[in-house]
Amino acid sequence: MRTRSQSRNSNRQQQQVNPTFVEPFNLVEPIENQAPPVVTMADNRTMAQLLEAPTEGYEDAIVVPEITADNFELKHGLLTLVQNKQFFGHDKEDPHAHIRYFNKITSTMKFPNVPSTSVKLMLFPFSLEGAARIWLEKEPPRSILTWDDLVSKFINKFFPPSKTTNLQNEITRFQQRFDETFYEEWDRFNNLLRACPHHVFLELHQLDTFYNALNSNDQDSLNSAASGNFLDKMPRDCLRIIESKSKVRNSRNKLVVAKVSASSSTPGISPDVAKLKDMMKALILDKKNQSQAPATVKAVEKSCVTCEGAHSYRNCPTTDGNVYRDNIQEYVSQAATANFNQRNTGYRAPIANQIRPLGFPPVQQN
């Protein structure tokens, strides 16, 4: 019977004689090198327990480092300040402005032996609402370990590259608006720069863009303040001149753009304005004439039906004190009816049959 050592020696001799000899591979691993079998425990849970909803996976995305300071507590007033200006994730909201406001609020409170970044990580979820809060809740658990990680993910989520490109184009095409003062234009330009902190425009390009966006009056004003050509100055001197000029808010150096009409009597005024002024002048003149010469009211002439005098039949002197005066109105009514029949039918009642007021003699017929 050959031993294991003898078989190994014979294999070595064969390798020396035949170099292409390959030692057979032992497919059976020794027992001492085998891993112990895994013993699985029997799942003795009931059907109701197996169907229960899991209670794991509720960890927050933000990992707040352990705070070892004694008597540490977030004040309710600080939470109120943070929640007074929450970020909702709308398109018109600026995430950079929200981070600046949040840093300003959290810097007002100092806690002994507590890092400020830990306080920020604890408070930041309270500053979000709406779509912004939903975004944070969907982040993987324990995926945000530092304050820088949180700021980076927040900015990249709500300030996509497309928004950066739009703001950069708006800065490049910046122009002074109609009827905009120098101070208003400089303030609007700085707002664009603050809205996109990563605009990558150097100070030289910023000053050149702003100067070329000015109207001729404001450019001449800057050249006068620079005692020559504004662009011949150093960038820091140009910035100092612009800042000094922008502080004078009462200086209303506006660019007045008006259409000059050839038919207008007043130069520099648009036709619509001139027409409106003429209408106002005519209205004021007409009102003035009406106040100076009031309209006369024609007096009502009175005519007596009895004597055709310029008075009422009740005041007729021929019937004053006569008992038949009250029958005059009835007579007038009947006489009007007779005249109407005569005009329309051609029939004329005999004079004897015509009704006469009592007390008057009958008319003699010829």
TrEMBL record:
Record domain Retrotransposon gag: where: 123-215
Source taxon at top rank: Eukaryota
Pfam families registered for this protein in UniProt: Retrotrans_gag
Molecular function in Gene Ontology: RNA-directed DNA polymerase activity
Keyword Nuclease: no
InterPro entries given in the database record: Retrotrans_gag_dom
Keywords noted in UniProt: Nucleotidyltransferase, RNA-directed DNA polymerase, Transferase
Protein known as: Reverse transcriptase domain-containing protein
